[in-house]
Fold these 3 entries.
Entry 1:
Amino acid sequence: MKSTALKGLVLVMAAGFAAMGACGRKADAPAGASGEIRVFTFGYPPEKMAREQQAEVFQKRFPNIKVNMEVSPDYDRKLTAMLAANDGPDIWEVCDDHFHMFSPDLTDLRPYIERDRVDLSIFYDRAINGYILNDGMIEALPIGLCPFVLAINKDLFREAGAAVPAGDSWTWDELLEAAGKITRGSGPSKVFGLGDHWVFQQTAPWYFGGRYYNNDFTEILFDSPESVRGIQHFADLIWKYKVYPNFEEASGVVANQRFFGGRSGIQAVNIRGLNDFITTIGDNFDWNIVRMPTTGETGETPIWSIVQGYGIWRGSKNKEAAWAFTKWATTDPESLAICALAAVPPTKNAAEIVRAYNWEKKDLNTQALINSIPDAILVQPGGPFAQVADIYNAFWDSVKKGETADMAQGAKDLAARGRVILRSLNLSGVNK
């Protein structure tokens, strides 16, 4: 049922752009671009639907090129196995949090970009910069960003006498005041002001000016005073103010389901989850989305977002066809309208594209997604830094279980362990 609804939304959106004239032109494949290509992407349901519909539309525009779309939720393991067997897909989805892990296997797109005069200024800086290496190589072009916003249950706000955020500007002090009023009860039926989500622990060090790493990624900063303040801030939400579920309270309850059931007033979500919110909540309560809050003291509004893009395998036997698809997929308004089911378009006309989407919730504050882009950051890089990310996430489990009470000491121990890993990786001079 949901799958059919999603497909309908994608088709309506693409058709809308055709009617607007964004995609009414005929497109001929470049000379030599024909044959078959394999495209490998992630398998999250809205993304799967968008990518498959994108391939279908592309083939109508470029009938000389057949796209074999492969989608898998077991993305990392399968891609690694394919590359190890020298059987890579012509194109695969590259995220900037891979942090250039696949650069040796990717084609430099700069010569194609310069040859075809692709204007990179159409992209948000946040969307394109993560794909440009220090030596000038461009390893991929972006399809979309995935910034998080907050869904708010406006009925719970009103019942609790809490101020509903006006517009897209509010602070952590205002959020905490509202969350405190909304939180009530105990045990399985407890209503929390703020629903649990991994995105908060990911961004914790940033709110008071801290970071995970220094600018060249040669030093860990978990134990800086600024990072510790951010970590303490989120620990206090759990243990001091009790507006956020601890480990035991969160166990056995999917966070989104807590929100859907009216048992939390605020829940993190990004664009790929919005249709699930719309179809599940229906008319059960009044809700909308707003931007992440700002820390009044610092003015920081760090917003977790990866960038999704397409890169071409060095070993591809059909690079011209692969480039034709990559260029169209990442720059054509019709393609980006389809992709918007799973990500905010990476181009500076994103607001126009998202507004044109036929959202079932007609008053959805989609501008909150667009307004989040300037604050969208790569919070915690993966790729070669995945081992450090693992110990950071394990640290947060200990915080949520109440096993770490002294955040400064906990962050100091965490940083010491991380530095051992960082030294062993020998990543001095890694591309930024």
Entry 2:
Amino acid sequence: MDAEKIVKIALKKGADEVAVKLTDADDIQLRFSNNRGDISNRWVVSHAYVFLSVDGRTTSMEVKKEEDLEKNIEKGINFAKKLPKNPDFLGIYDKKSTASKLSFRPIDTDELSEFGRITIESALSNGVKRVSGEIYRAKHRVTVATNYNVLSEERSYLLTTARAFNDEGNPGQASTHIADREELERYGPEFVGNKAGMLASKNINVKEGQEGEFTVLLDPLCFGSTITEVASALSAFSVDSGRSFFVNKLGEEVASEVLTVYDDPHRPGGGMAGFDDEAAPTKRALTIEKGVLKNYLHSTSTAKKYDTKTTANARISGGYFMPLGSIIPGGWQTYVEPGKRSMADLMADIDKGLYIANTWYTRFQDKLKGDFSTIPRDGIFYIENGEIKEAWRSMRISENILNMLKNIREMSSENVPADWWGETQRTFVPYALIDSVRITKAR
């Protein structure tokens, strides 16, 4: 398909503004279980998301085949004409632009099967019984065409996930996203396998946990889930729609002074991008500085509403059939500034507390207030005098996210590119030491 051609057809059929995001993907997945590779998949696909504005009315569609393209675009425009005007749409990025240059050394396809072997062997070296997971290499040519610009670039990254099980069947899990091959040694397959195996090896003789308020050390996969929710709440659309705990808090202290957060699409990883879905050049955007909320994430339309400039965060962030980010801006990659001491040093400071490896099913009871709960998994460890004493199960974090952010005592010096489907979405986060975290039973 041709993105420019789609724009021309849409304008000819009556659209006022058009943004087309065309992705030509060549993705490879190697899956392994029971300590051996079992399935390999390859997807070579091309699809386009088309955003249309007709007299202030907006809609979007996905196009997978070039056949009947004109007819489908015409249907989309006729559908838009029947809609009410969209008060949240104030236009797309209309300045001539060039893409911000991405600097990374992509990982070779020929190495993928070796990565699977390394992941498995690294996990098994910790004495675990079996290992499963995947190596996923994404390679995309992304083109965005609008009335005003046509930009194109390569985006490529590697996801590595390992889930290790001990003799009791209890798991440990690790998962990372990297794009530059120089990161292979630090956070590639060996790191992922070792960490999953280490967690599983400690997750033994599991006991029923106790309720209460604890000092908690959150692993990057677990803290990354919290930071993923922070990134979502930073979207100007989330704020406007009353679905953010950051409503009316610009310039206010929303977290501990040790927390500084950026959206960083230029760091090599699974969410890097040189331009957004309106062809605005991306940049590193400071959102929280030493605990103070500095900025929301904006598209062109939301920036106009706030009388500011776009942060180039117009991007699809909610999956298929969502409007392009012109309406709902979203984060690319969330980067949290690390601290100065190691994870081991932070754990040594805990007299009585918990180390939580991972979590899932994060759900909000009140999004505006920030009341939520989430279920720890893959290792809940009780700590006394800086040492793991036993493993727990059946626990829940029942908290207010703003309280948690304000109770962060310290960040580790490690900064892990954590990623896990459904929870932690392409973050760069340290281990976080947080005081007074409410732990309840997972009933």
Entry 3:
Amino acid sequence: MKNEKLSADQSELARPGSLEEELLQRLDLGRLPTHVAIIMDGNGRWARKRRLPRVAGHRAGIKSVRETVEVSARLGLGVLTLYAFSQENWKRPRAEVDTLMGLLKEYVRKELDTLMRNNIRFRVIGRIGDLADSVQGELTRAEEATAKNTGLLFNIALSYGGRAEIVDACRSLLRSGQDPDDLTEELFGKRLYTGDCPDPDLMVRTSGEMRVSNFLLWQIAYAEIHVTETLWPDFRRRHIFEALVDFQNRERRYGGLNPDEGTVKPPAALRG
């Protein structure tokens, strides 16, 4: 379905005659996913291919974050969740972790005006207490400054693990005195870090890896998964549009049947 008219923001997403414009025109803007989650992978390989230190890949990846967030906001997506730093990432060399945290603080400081200008609400999910006080301070300032924004909700997952999130939700329920017999999936879901968000409709993984890497394990139960060979530092709006086009070509049945399948007659040999 072609879009008859794009909004002012959306019309700036692609140059006339470009591949991006062709992909954008293939999108039905009325059927975009509400929540997109992305596993940002491939920074190290990107740097290694260019014989650069790993930090060069992380720094290059910031541009991809910036473009992905801005494009998501202009498209009118409701929620974007980026997997930035896992609990397992603490095992990396101290110098690399320190560099990553420095880049994170730099990003938050530099992009705050852009977040405000685009009406984006910024939020951190994960075990935030694991982060250094200086990092927590920058993140908190950004969260507070954008708290009243009403556009895209941009979640960034830091010191995050899907299993840890489930454990934290269980701890929260136990502390609250929740009656086990009254516990439902809905009540449990509200105790997750993303408890006030709809579950992801689409999960994107870069760098061609075919695994979910302990990311949003509860929430992605019915998410469509799109894998691209593109390394994260090379990820741009074209790849976002490709993922969205792929999403809209899927049949989402949540374990049921589509109407046509429900009316198929059994083979003659099985009929009386």
